[in-house]
Design goal:
Elements (H helix, E strand, L loop, with lengths): L2 H17 L9 E11 L10 E7 L1 H4 L15 E11 L2 E9 L4 E9 L3 E12 L2 E15 L2
Antiparallel strand pairs: 1-2, 1-7, 3-4, 4-5, 5-6, 6-7
């Protein structure tokens, strides 16, 4: 998978978590996020797992998208939820992002104060070609900073 595809997935997760209202549950400290991507159109298209570490302050912990360390994602703008729901500690959503990628995504993130696990299916238009990706996300608080 290209670096651009990886940026798309990281951006989707950032947009997803930024809009969720479970921020009060997230503990500050050192967080490690692992993202594994694979193409649904072409299951043989995969990427090596991407690991991002980030020290979250009290302020950062109020915005769970901080777990990603501010990964930029050009081509994605104005992300809005078309559906979202909470059941216990699970957040389910569908979202759409304007911009050159015409991104649509759906997913589920289960969380606690010290962990997040989820799966996101996304569809986007990259350079005129439709792509469909699945991302598995695992985030863990590793301790203090």
């Amino acid at each position: 998978m290209s670096v651009r595809g990886i940026q798309i997935m990281a951006g989707i997760l950032a947009a997803t978590l930024a809009g969720a209202s479970f921020a009060a549950e997230i503990q500050p400290g050192l967080w490690e996020l692992v993202v594994e991507n694979r193409g649904l159109d072409s299951p043989d298209v995969t990427s090596e797992p991407i690991t991002i570490s980030r020290c979250l302050t009290e302020e950062d912990a109020q915005d769970p998208s901080g777990v990603l360390g501010g990964v930029a994602n050009p081509g994605m703008a104005d992300c809005t939820y078309t559906q979202r729901s909470f059941s216990g500690n699970t957040f389910r959503f569908k979202m759409r992002c304007d911009g050159s990628l015409g991104l649509q995504a759906r997913g589920e993130v289960t969380y606690s104060a010290i962990s997040m696990d989820g799966s996101i299916i996304s569809m986007a238009n990259m350079d005129g070609q439709a792509i469909m990706l699945e991302s598995k996300i695992t985030a863990r608080r590793r301790g203090g900073c």
